[in-house]
């Protein structure tokens, strides 16, 4: 065959493959979440705040339990002027005829430890950790969507304070309660009370009238309990999350801002698509979320538009997806036993300032092996072939019994149970699944709409299992986007927006597992 013909054939083949690929996505994948592509005109947003080990510890003064929700419906009746053909469809409505109906009241949001719930089905625990879990389920019951056979609740905004006071026994060690923390590891803490919950203020969703009526609202606040936000920030920590509609697409635009401070140098803020019910990544109570069905590797995709406006400094571990799940070292799904359950996270960090700790001269921070796109296993000691720069770091679960040397154990305190982390960086190895191929892609000045084959990527990652055990089902109960500003006491600020978020799973067949518990 001459050059011309082979080129033509090749081009044809490419077209066929392209068509097949797009057909697969459009025809056989369906949304797994209650707010596909964020197009719901009604607001379904909740906020949870976690201490260092994803609990409450103590509530902030006068704030109640750190679980809040803004679930508001936009009710519009046909216009009196007879103008019923509304451009933009049912998502965005004409003014004059609209009302907002709040399903969650201020009284609900202020509920704090020991307070009786308005609904007698929920128990007024006197333990702040148990109360928060119960409040999350109560608020969820007010927000519940009834438009499908599986229930769904709300997006989850998660805030976490990285301070850890080693003089307290608030956090277990790899899930084990200890009477005293003995560790050589260092954690930020300015003194007693450093693990406090934040002051949270709430702009309840209200109607704004642009071309069409839509809702706008938000949560904001600070960890500095002595801050007066009216008077200005002045070196205090700050967070803010607001939602408003993109009037041309109908998607929510979720705008986020996070600032660390001297007293609160390590803060996290994520927008989470969590399992509607059951455990979700890092949380060992039955929580509430927006994923009606849970995605399973290798068959699922995530779409979102991300604009990073400010990076948050060199320690800002910005996650163009942090995915979380839980399974035991023998491959069994988690069942709530914190001694044997292990939280598994994989995170792609897109801050170009983040370097690779996994290097030929530092194998301890690499997973034992890498799986190439065609399934080939490349050991970390194969220095000419292992893609070190595709990894930031790997660390192993603290309760694993058969680890391959050399290894590093993940922080044993920052989760309710042992955890395993696979942190990856933009690299051609991952770009085959739609992820950034090099540093800087998707970063400041490079806002993009991503279609990430998260299922295929997560299927290739190394996760620890006991030798000879059946591989765990990789079912992901939490898909997050946001940043973890790691210890930055000078006051670093990150700012970003997320829209068009969707989770796509195969229609019918594989995937679509319900959460346990
Ligand atoms: C913990 O206790 C030690 C010894 O009493 C004390 O020096 C230190 O300041 C305490 N740390 C905090 C965070 O309170
Ligand atoms: C809350 O409302 C105030 C006043 O309208 C506004 O300045 C602020 O940006 C809003 N914040 C959020 C997070 O919605
Ligand atoms: C907060 O600052 C505002 C503006 O400076 C001031 O009017 C208000 O009294 C302050 N509130 C408190 C509790 O200090
Ligand atoms: C609304 O969406 C369009 C299409 O994706 C985008 O070009 C535009 O920038 C968005 N508007 C805002 C305010 O984000
Ligand atoms: C590399 O690591 C593998 C797996 O741990 C081991 O079997 C092999 O002997 C190592 N090769 C060298 C040259 O050290």
Would you mind describing this structure in some detail?
49% of the residues are buried. The termini are far apart. The model is unreliable at 1-26 and 80-91 (pLDDT under 50). The protein has 517 residues and is mainly beta. Strand 8 and strand 9 form a beta hairpin. The chain has one domain (29-76, 96-506). The protein is globular, with a radius of gyration of 23 Å. It has helices spanning 3-28, 106-110, 128-143, 428-431, 454-460, and strands at 29-31, 43-50, 67-76, 98-102, 155-161, 199-209, 213-222, 238-245, 252-259, 267-274, 277-280, 283-288, 301-311, 316-326, 342-349, 369-371, 377-379, 391-395, 418-424, 448-452, 478-485, 493-506. Helices cover 11% and strands 32% of the residues. The strands form four sheets. A ten-stranded mixed β-sheet has the order 4-3-2-5-10-21-14-15-19-18. Strands 1, 6, 7, 8, 9, 13, 20 and 22 form an eight-stranded antiparallel β-sheet that branches. The longest helix is centred in the N-terminal third of the chain and has 26 residues, at 3-28. The structure holds 2-acetamido-2-deoxy-beta-D-glucopyranose (5 copies). Residues 165, 167, 189, 191-192 line the site of one 2-acetamido-2-deoxy-beta-D-glucopyranose.
């Amino acid at each position: 065959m001459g050059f011309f013909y082979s080129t033509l054939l090749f081009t044809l083949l490419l077209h066929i493959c392209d068509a097949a690929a797009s057909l697969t996505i459009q025809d056989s994948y369906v949304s797994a979440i209650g707010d596909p592509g964020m197009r719901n005109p009604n607001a379904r947003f909740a906020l949870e705040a976690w201490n260092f080990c994803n609990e409450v510890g103590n509530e902030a003064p006068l704030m109640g339990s750190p679980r809040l929700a803004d679930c508001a419906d936009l009710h519009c009746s046909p216009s009196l002027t007879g103008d019923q053909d509304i451009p933009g469809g049912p998502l965005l409505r004409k003014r004059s005829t609209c009302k907002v109906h709040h399903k969650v009241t201020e009284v609900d949001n202020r509920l704090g430890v020991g307070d009786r719930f308005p609904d007698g089905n929920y128990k007024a625990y006197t333990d702040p950790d148990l109360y928060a879990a119960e409040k999350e389920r109560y608020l969820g019951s007010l927000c519940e969507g009834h438009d499908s056979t599986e229930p769904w609740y709300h997006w989850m905004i998660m805030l976490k304070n990285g301070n850890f006071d080693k003089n307290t026994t608030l956090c277990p060690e790899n899930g084990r309660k200890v009477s005293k923390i003995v560790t050589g590891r260092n954690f930020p803490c300015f003194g007693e009370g450093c693990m406090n919950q934040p002051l949270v203020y709430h702009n309840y969703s209200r109607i704004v009238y642009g071309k069409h009526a839509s809702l706008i609202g938000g949560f904001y606040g600070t960890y500095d309990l002595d801050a007066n936000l009216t008077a200005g920030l002045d070196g205090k920590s700050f967070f803010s999350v607001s939602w408003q509609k993109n009037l041309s697409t109908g998607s929510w635009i979720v705008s986020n801002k996070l600032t660390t401070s001297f007293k609160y140098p390590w803060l996290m803020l994520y927008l989470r698509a969590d399992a509607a019910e059951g455990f979700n990544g890092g949380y060992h109570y039955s929580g509430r979320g927006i994923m009606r069905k849970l995605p399973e590797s290798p068959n699922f995709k995530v779409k979102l538009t991300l604009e990073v406006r400010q990076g948050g400094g060199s320690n800002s571990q910005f996650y163009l997806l942090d995915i979380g799940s839980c399974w035991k070292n023998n491959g069994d799904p988690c069942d709530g036993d914190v001694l044997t359950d292990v939280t598994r996270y994989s995170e792609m960090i897109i801050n170009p300032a983040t370097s690779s700790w996994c290097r030929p001269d530092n194998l301890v921070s690499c997973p034992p092996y890498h799986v190439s796109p065609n399934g080939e296993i490349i050991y970390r000691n194969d220095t000419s072939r292992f893609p070190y720069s595709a990894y930031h770091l790997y660390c192993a679960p603290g309760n694993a019994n058969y680890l391959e040397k050399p290894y590093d154990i993940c922080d044993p305190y920052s989760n309710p149970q042992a955890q395993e982390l696979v942190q990856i960086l933009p690299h051609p190895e991952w770009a085959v699944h739609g992820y950034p191929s090099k540093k800087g892609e998707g970063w400041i000045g490079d806002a993009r709409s991503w279609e990430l084959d998260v299922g295929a990527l997560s299927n290739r990652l190394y996760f620890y299992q006991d030798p000879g055990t059946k591989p765990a089902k990789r079912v992901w109960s939490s898909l997050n986007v946001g940043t973890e500003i790691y210890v930055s006491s000078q006051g670093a600020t990150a700012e970003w927006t997320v829209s068009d978020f969707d989770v796509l799973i195969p229609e019918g067949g594989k995937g679509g597992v319900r959460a346990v518990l």
